[in-house]
Amino acid sequence: MELRQIQYFIAIAELEHFGRASQRLRIAQPALSRQMRLLEAELGLSLFERLPRGVRLTEAGRVFLERARLVMQQLDHAVLEAKAAAAGHAGVLRLGVIEVAAWQGLVPDAIRRFRADHPAAQLVLAALSGAEQVEAIEAQQLDAGLMYNPAPDAGLEATPLARHPVMLAVNVNSPLAGREAVRLADLADEDLLGFRRRESPQYYDDLQAAFRRAGFTPRLTAETRREADLLALVSAGAGVALVNSCQRFRPPQEVRFVPVSDLDVGLTLAYVRRRGHSLPLIDRFAETLEALRAG
User: With a threshold of 0.85, does the pTM exceed it?
Assistant: First the structure.
């Protein structure tokens, strides 16, 4: 069965006349009649009753017409949706986000703008650490990700978006909690809570270099995978932690954030995608990010 046969059948059924249908379709009437005979032979039934002045649908023909119209409608929708997907206006975008960046600023603004500008697109979000996002992108489980300090990778393309400074998180009962600012040297006698190096190698190495320049080795008492875990430990009085300044947008009740005046280490938020991945929605989201940065 061919698509054109269904189109021919619908035209004949609507006009109830082979001659008028051939004019509408711009096909010779003998060729049109031949295609209908082939269609009926394939189905093993008669679709039309031949009358002296035209044709009339059989009961089987009426049922087939109803279903054939649905097929053509679905095909039209499929064509429109495919064109929208090719233009980056529809389809599915699987996006990784790092939690702290999603509280305020560029990331939540971009998500809202993208959904407003592309209502036919489905944005599937996954809150993951940077390392988890990289693994998921390389495994093709995510299309792109928003993460901090992605390590150089020949298979990935990273676009820097913003640089967020680091602040010191301390318990409200710490002597440092009332300070307007501290220096790195003030942390020499503190129990320091930190990230595992695997989660962000560049960030980890930058902090260690800063400690060396300040002339001391930190007393590291715990390492975690996520900043939320660090803040929970700070809240419990287990130590102090250097964290993303964006954490101040959702401060835990028992934690205070203090600037570190001589610490020039930051976290670079980046949009990361697999190099050469041509999904149009990836480009549309990148354009949304760039428009918000520029505006």
Answer: no
